[in-house]
Design goal:
transmembrane helix, AbrB family transcriptional regulator, globular
């Protein structure tokens, strides 16, 4: 009896020890996630102060990556990507308006032409990177997708690519385009579009500013409704099993809500939270070994950037010569940077905002919905 009593006490103590270790492990994960998120948040604020594009995405990614490389303590469960996808889809969907839908049939051929150029470029550049720079195919193709950092990075996580390489390539592309674009467009305008009337550009700029002033003000009720509808769509996307389904369905649900109810864009802080989550997830995947790989991306990134500039001028000149767009609007419309960033720059420098936004949104939706499916088909 004494032996049995001691045995059962030993089992009970072991059970408590196991439970204590489990609880301790859970606590460590929770603390690690909170610390990682705080690091990402600080990185976002620093990037915003420095004027970096998409600061809360790029800043959090860089800060968490540095934290992970130095301390090897960064952790952020990749399952949280669903939350980021839903918020991102809600945000993109709110950029769709009835006017954009009205313009789509009229500019259908230019959109198809541009999407074909982007698709051919993605596969061609991806194959070059795979053959000459030793990237696996899915990472190479996703690195060449003409989408936003956050959206493509989330897709890369979902599709099992090397998300740190994809994010780095997308970051270089975005930063490069936003830095070069104003000077590039001025150069092309001097070469091909010197006869374009500046008075018309100024009028377009005034109209764009006036439209922004008339937009409804965000409210808690508005944001809650958008996020609720987007979450329903995201949940349906997760259940469907479609690649990046949460992002795709939340985008469609949010866009439908925008058209039916004319809701206003969600508060930027909500978007920033999603950017920090996505940036932290990607940043936590960096390690000291992955740091040695980044220097090998400089040449591929420059090649990719040059290929997009070629597409930009090719599309713009063809569409301009056919009289579909003015040259400046065509250049802005075919620039593969963030739709919001391009719209802001175009509002400052001039251009037909309705056409620019319609094509930029079409590019974003095409990148998120169609291209991942095409890539999976070829893989």
């Amino acid at each position: 009896m004494l032996i049995l009593t001691c045995f059962f006490k030993f089992l009970g103590r072991n059970k408590r020890n196991v439970q204590d270790k489990v609880d301790e492990g859970v606590d460590n994960v929770v603390v690690g996630c909170i610390v990682t998120f705080v690091v990402g948040l600080l990185g976002g604020f620093i990037a915003k102060k420095l004027g970096m594009p998409a600061p809360f995405m790029t800043g959090s990614m860089l800060a968490v990556a540095l934290f992970s490389i130095v301390f090897a303590q960064a952790m952020m469960p990749s399952t949280l990507k669903t939350i980021a996808q839903v918020i991102s889809g809600a945000y993109i969907g709110q950029q769709i308006s009835k006017q954009d839908i009205f313009y789509l049939p009229k500019i259908g051929k230019p959109i198809l032409f541009l999407m074909a150029l982007f698709t051919v470029n993605m596969f061609l550049m991806g194959w070059i990177f795979h053959v000459f720079f030793d990237m696996d195919l899915i990472t190479a193709w996703l690195s060449c997708m003409p989408g936003g950092i956050m959206d493509v990075s989330l897709i890369s996580i979902d599709m099992g690519a090397k998300s740190e390489i994809v994010a780095a390539m997308q970051l270089i592309r975005l930063v490069g385009m936003l830095l070069i674009l104003p000077y590039w467009i001025m150069l092309i305008m001097r070469r091909f579009g010197h006869e374009q009337l500046k008075s018309g550009q100024r009028q377009q700029k005034k109209t764009a500013v006036k439209k922004n002033w008339n937009e409804p003000i965000n409210t808690v009720k508005n944001d809650t409704l958008i996020l609720f509808i987007a979450t329903l769509g995201g949940g349906l996307g997760v259940v469907s099993g479609i690649p990046v389904g949460a992002l795709i369905f939340s985008l469609f649900f949010s866009g439908a809500l925008k058209i039916v109810k004319n809701t206003s864009q969600i508060n930027g802080k909500v978007r920033y939270t999603a950017q920090i989550l996505a940036g932290s997830i990607i940043g936590s995947s960096f390690s000291r070994s992955s740091l040695t790989q980044l220097h090998s991306l400089i040449i591929p990134a420059i090649i990719l950037l040059c290929s997009y500039l070629v597409i930009n001028v090719l599309f713009a000149v063809v569409i301009y010569k056919r009289g579909v767009f003015d040259l400046q609007s065509a250049l802005f419309a075919s620039s593969p940077a963030g739709a919001t960033d391009i719209s802001l720059i175009a509002g400052e420098l001039g251009g037909d905002m309705s056409k620019i936004v319609a094509i930029q949104i079409s590019r974003t939706v095409y990148t998120i919905v169609i291209l991942p499916t095409i890539i999976r088909f070829f893989l």
